[in-house]
Amino acid sequence: ELTAKLGKDTTTWSWGRLHQLMLKNQTLGKEGPGVLQYMLNRGPWNLGGGEAAVDATGWNAASGDYGVTWVPSMRMVVNLKDFDKSKWINLTGASGHAYSAHYSDQTEKWAKGELLDWSFTGKAVDGSTVDTLKLTP
Fold first, then answer.
1. pLDDT digit string (tens) for 56-80?
2. Can you give the residue range of the structural domain that contains 8?
3. Using one digit for the tens of pLDDT, what is the confidence trace for 9-62?
4. How many domains does the chain divide into?
5. Rounded CA gap, 122 and 24, in Å?
6. Residue 103 has pLDDT above 90, yes or no
7. Is-contact 13 6, C-beta < 8 A?
8. In the chain, which ranges are E strands?
9. 110: helix, strand or coil
């Protein structure tokens, strides 16, 4: 099976080439027209890990492939002594708009196991703010 899927050269074999994450939009990215699936979905990302790993990722072994079927949607490390030194990462991004630069801008870092600074205090938030959205009546 591995030779059929990954080739005869075992030095090129990689779990991530089989264990890939596809982000599929829950509204129209699964069953919608092909053009909408293309616009809304992202991936694939080659992942490591498995169900018993710290950065757990799962798949359905009975399905006949090794595609990722579940992952943690967010990871965080909280520094209880100094909340401003806490870190976190979201699976996708900060926007639900498919053409926003922030739709899936955290996924590559998430897949690599990286974390982002998580500002907590007002001073830290002000110091790290890049964009502000102001809603007025």
1. 899 998 888 899 999 999 999 999 9
2. 1-71
3. 999 999 999 999 999 988 877 787 888 888 999 999 999 888 888 878 999 988
4. 2
5. 35
6. yes
7. yes
8. 20-23, 42-46, 58-59, 68-70, 74-77, 87-90, 116-117
9. helix
22 close to 47: Cβ distance less than 8 angstroms: no
Domain match, 54 and 92 both: no
Contact predicate 39/100, CB 8 Å: no
Report residue 115 as tokens: 């974390």
Buried/exposed 67-102: b ≥16 CB within 10 Å, e otherwise: bbeebeeebeeeeeeeeeebeebbbbbeeeeeeeee
Same structural domain, 27 and 54: yes
Are 64 and 84 in the same domain?
no
pLDDT at 13: 95
For residues 22 and 59, give the distance between their C-alpha atoms in angstroms, rounded to a whole number: 12
Look at the pTM and tell me if it is higher than 0.90.
no
The pair of three-digit structure tokens given for residue 16, joined into one six-digit string? 């991530």
Same domain for 105 and 82:
yes
* Backbone angles phi and psi of 88, in degrees to 5: -160, 170
d(Cα 103, Cα 134) in Å, to the nearest integer?
20
